[in-house]
Amino acid sequence: MLTQEDDVEIHALANRGWNKSVIARHTGRDRKTVRKYLAGGGERRERAPSCLEPFREYLQARFADDPHVDATVLHRELVAAGFDRSYPTLVREIRRLELRPVCVDCQHRRGDDVTVELDHRAGEEIQWDWLELHQTPWEAPAFVLIGALSCSGRFRAVFCEQMTFGHLADAGHRILVGLGGTPRVWRTDRMATVVIPGTGRLTAEMANIAKHYGVEIAVCPPRRAQRKGVVEAAVKYTTKSWWRTAPVASMAEAQLSLDQWSVEVADGRRRPGGTVGSLGAAEPLRGLPPMAYPAIVTVERKVSRSALVAFEGNHYSVPPFLAGRSVTVRATVGSHTLQIVSRTGEIACEHRRLPAGAGQRIRTAEHAQLLEQAVLAAFTTNGHACRRKVNRPPGQDALVALARLKGLNTEPVSNVRSLADYEHHAEAATRQAVPSR
Q1: pLDDT digit string (tens) for 21-58?
Q2: Model confidence pLDDT, tens digit, residues 85-105
Q3: Which of 69-83, 212-226, 417-431 is predicted least confidently?
């Protein structure tokens, strides 16, 4: 017996003019079977139940949470739950059962630009791009710098708080360390930290960092994102396969999870000749300089009530008089110290720079003593806080000062009367009350 799909195919080929023998050879069926089904006498066999039936409820719930969840993510989750079929089987059954809902908002016209596959030599080029995450579980925007080797597709990524040149230099060096070296060419788009807007020329800082690493900077033409398609694919893959399902609550947790996923999942993708990780490790990369390029990372921060400043997942103390005020944290890439600068430009303090995401706190003995004194001074009175709705008109001193400002007479006027004055007025009132005889 043939399935519904086989029956439809046989009739479609017959309608195109194929004879029964050719249809039988093409479909791998017996000629008498083809003749019977074309005559309408064949029995149609119903397809067996889908292997996803035990997992249908879970898949429907996952698609309700996110209709764009990647099938590779679902396959990993289902394998952990007991699914023993392959990834292509999962994709085929999801399509057959029509489990994935249609997102109406995303049904728009896709790009139709022609493209061509480019051949990249091993160790020749790395492509850079930013993944912008404006909504995160920790309710603060984050930016992920991704560097992908053009030949093997191996990539690494680093979370940053901003997209300044200092963050670019710091994250770029950490990515190169993770890849084991640097290719000869760095390819980027026309980002403001690399190219002077409106000119197409490299910025002075980018030129200096290229000299520091001994590389060339290749800038893509405007509106030609396909030229750096390797890193564009890495951005999409990271977003779909990791970010959408990453159980993270802070930037430090996100970085640890991303590093683990990059090694265990992204590097394990199969390619002709091995995996992405093995092909990337075999690329002949250049060695890195002994020190990273000394760019300066600066971020604005508000000091907490306990006189602490948050930076890179750690907290650093400042003098208590800066509590509640805005300061600037300044750190040099590769340096083991950082500076906290006040709004007036004065260096408030210097600290040893902790590893990013360590979750530690540094409070110097001097800052601790000053904070303790400030806290104790706030408890020297037993009075209640002042009421906000009482009537307190200007006092005598304030009125005198106001009169001086207006140029009026400021001599105090005495309203106090002596007892002799009262006696004199009383006698006068008595004489007027007694009638004359």
Answers
A1: 888 888 888 888 888 888 876 555 566 788 999 999 99
A2: 999 999 999 998 889 988 777
A3: 417-431
Domain that holds residue 32: 2-45
Model-wide pTM > 0.70: no
The encoded tokens of residue 362 equal 């540094």
pLDDT for 166: 93
Domain boundary among 322, 353, 377: 377
Question: Which CATH number fits the domain that encloses residue 272?
Answer: 3.30.420.10
125-133/185-188 β-pairing: parallel
CA distance 154 to 234: 9
Residues 6+ apart with CB under 8 A from 318: 303, 307, 308, 309, 327, 340, 348, 349, 367
Question: Which strands, in side-by-side order, build the sheet including 185-188?
Answer: 155-160, 142-149, 125-133, 185-188, 216-219
What is the DSSP annotation of 54-105? Answer: GGHHHHHHHHHH-TT--HHHHHHHHHHTT--S-HHHHHHHHHHHT-SPP-GG
Which structure tokens are listed for 276? 């992405």
Partners of 58 in the β-ladder: none
Q: Residues 396-422: pLDDT tens digits?
A: 888 888 888 887 766 655 555 666 776
Residue 278's contacts (CB-CB under 8 Å, 6 or more residues apart) are none
Q: Are 13 and 26 in contact (CB under 8 A)?
A: yes
Q: Locate tokens 């003019």: which residue?
A: 17
Domain count, the chain: 4
Give φ, ψ of 364 to 5 degrees: -70, 160
Per-residue confidence (pLDDT) for residue 381, from 0 to 100: 60
297, 315 Cβ separation under 8 angstroms: no
Q: Say if residue 249 is in the same domain as residue 313.
A: no
